[in-house]
Amino acid sequence: MNYWPLAGIAIVVLGFALRFNPLLVVVSAALATGVLAGLDPIAVIEALGKAFNDNRYISVTWIILPVIGLLERYGLQQRARAVIEGMRGATMGKLLVAYLAFRQLASALGMKDIGGHPQAVRPLVAPMAEAAALKTHGDLSDAARDEVKAMAAATDNVGLFFGEDIFFAIASILLIQGVFEAAGYPLTPLQLSVWAIPTAICAFVIHAGRILAFDRRLGRAPE
Amino acid sequence: MITYEWLYVLAGAAFGVWAALSAKDRRWGSAAFWALLSASFLLGSHLSDLANGVLVLALVAIAGLGGLKRSDPPTTSPQEREAYAAQLGNRLFLPALVVPLTAVAGTLLYNYTPLGETGLFEPRRETLILFGIGVIAALIGAMVWLRPPLMAPAEEGRRLIDSIGWAAILPQMLAALGAVFALAGVGEIIGGIAGGIIPEGSVFLTVVVFALGMAGFTMIMGNAFAAFPVMAAAIGIPLLIGQYGGNPAVIGAVGMLAGFCGTLLTPMAANFNIVPAALLELKDQNAVIRQQVGTAVPLLVCNIVIIYVGAFWLWN
């Protein structure tokens, strides 16, 4: 077997480690992999162009930015903070655990488009978490604020990934079904999606525990 | 029938406006980058594969040479924002909710009522198309309500897209990398190696290699969807199900979730890990991944246990 195409993977790993521009790393890896697999360089560029073109739908979602930007111009982030400041007993831990539960449940019901980084985390969840952390712990360093915002983004990801597969009509479940059916093991989407539940529960317990521990650690951190 | 082409025209127009505004600001690198992306959306379906490939190389050259910079279009001051927020109250959240509600409620209506028989939308494309419709509705509603300067949404959108910069097209580029990897047979090679290192006869170790392989290959590809067919064909189906008689539903479902643990750990999953770091203006590009390690690693262990218990103990 020709193992040379794996050099593309090495380029990806090294390129990211050495902090080259990721677009440059990815395209270099694609070109190297294709050529080392014995393809004509022009054919590799054509394959890259076709695949980039076929996947344009992925980048369509940026059309939401004018809406978010316009609302931010009129104080959306400030309003999100004010809501949290007005709540008695709101802590960053409680807020993010509640968001984790909401995100998991909504995704499990097929509503994975509620939430997401441009639509929800940047304008709402991150400012709310930051406001709650400031409220309970007083002034925080820039590094600690960044950690809070990053935890808000991480919570959105965990909630989505370990909620969405409980909904049976989702791409990943259909992909599993397709692969297994082709191999002679017909399964219904529902048979698969119920097995996403144990992992979803583990994910909630682990991540919620980490959020609360993080909140306590922020309280102890010397300023 | 409304198809993805309509969305591409919309996105092409948005990136075209951002290119023009960047040019007006004499930010030539950004102007060229967004103009090329606009051309990809507007003309991509009519260009040859080679022309699209050259367009990709040009985009990457601009980004690689550091041609993209953050922009600072005129906007409201923090004090003005506080005043607006106090004045407008919670109604500010409404336009932001219009978009997901249109996408979700519209998808449900379209799939579970006779609306679907109208054939209004391209099949299986309705959610993203409805997302586009929601964006237009929210934008019109916000413009009528807030009466900002006409160019405000374009300028505010440009501020955000410039803060994301080249990361905006990284997910799409990674999908293209996946296609080239598939063409070069990388999946088969990895599957062959993974299949070769498993000790004979140990169900538990086979489960471990399967789950770690899913996570590891997902980290490399940035996407569990690319890893799943490879690991299922190399280990999941022939060994865990065929040879050891495990429950296919558990192996499939939880195997995919083991891959999702890998997604939490890799900069290659750009839209989940790198884009938010840019959007939130974090100093460390990998800050989101750092917060996820402590969840992903124990959860991967949970998945291994769930596969072993669910697919073998409870099944036999």
TrEMBL record, chain A:
Keywords: Membrane, Transmembrane, Transmembrane helix. The lineage of its organism: Bacteria, Pseudomonadati, Pseudomonadota, Alphaproteobacteria, Sphingomonadales. Pfam families: DUF969 (PF06149). This is DUF969 family protein. The chain crosses the membrane at residues 56-76, 158-180, 192-213. It comes from the Bacteria. It comes from Erythrobacter ramosus. The keyword Membrane applies.
From TrEMBL, chain B:
It holds the Pfam family DUF979. Keywords: Membrane, Transmembrane, Transmembrane helix. The chain crosses the membrane at residues 6-21, 28-44, 50-68, 88-108, 128-148, 160-183, 189-212, 224-244, 250-272, 293-315. This is DUF979 family protein. It comes from Erythrobacter ramosus.
